[in-house]
């Protein structure tokens, strides 16, 4: 589990294509300071398992399902990536509950700059729209953010200077893909509620 509070901005050192997968090596001195084989590190919001640690870099394998669902399919040597180690028991939950299981990708549509913050418009896949609510939580490239406004096909988030400086979201341009993970609580509520709603609908139809 993660919190969506990015620890550092790393960069991709190398990529390797594998049958139905890819292997990436990423530099990140903070997240590798105590990393070992089998640990989980979120890369742009995608939970990856550490295969090898060498100096300030770690290697992880990215399976086909992850490549299909996330922007990691386009990651290349030199790209900057958001990095976060798995949450430790007992620490403060600064963001919200993040699984590192990307639900899909969105596209940066526009950016509106202000003096002390920036509003970013992000395209929202129809399959995820029902899980996104105004003032709710969403994870974008592994960053825990609060939704400002939402419609059927897009939502907006407001980025403070720290987020702009320390994460990839300060460098994303219109047209760029970003990874999206909706609030897992919304999915559980929907799953539990559907049978009851169907039962009610059936009773009303009789």
Counting copies of identical and different chains, the oligomeric state is single chain
N/C terminus separation: 45 Å
Uncertain ranges: none
DSSP helix fraction: 10-25%
Number of DSSP-assigned strands: 12
pLDDT averaged over residues: 92
Please summarize the sheet with the most strands: 6 strands, antiparallel, barrel
In sequence order, what are the helices and strands, one letter per element? Answer: EEEEEHEEEEEEHEH
Number of helices: 3
Rough outline: globular
| Largest sheet strand order | 1-2-5-4-3-6
Q: Into which percentage range does the β-strand content fall? A: 35-45%
If you compute it from the alpha carbons, what radius of gyration comes out, rounded to the nearest whole angstrom?
18 Å
Class by alpha and beta content? alpha+beta
Domain Lumazine-binding: 1-96, 97-193
Function: Catalyzes the dismutation of two molecules of 6,7-dimethyl-8-ribityllumazine, resulting in the formation of riboflavin and 5-amino-6-(D-ribitylamino)uracil.
Lumazine-binding repeats: 1-96, 97-193
Keywords: Repeat, Riboflavin biosynthesis, Transferase
Structure in words:
With 206 residues, this protein is α+β, with helices and mostly antiparallel strands. It is 17% helix and 41% strand. It has three helices and twelve strands, in the order E-E-E-E-E-H-E-E-E-E-E-E-H-E-H. The protein has helices spanning 64-69, 161-166, 184-205, and strands at 8-18, 21-27, 40-43, 46-54, 57-63, 80-85, 104-113, 118-123, 137-140, 143-150, 154-159, 177-182. It has a six-stranded antiparallel β-barrel. The chain has a six-stranded antiparallel barrel with strand order 7-8-11-10-9-12. The longest helix has 22 residues, at 184-205.
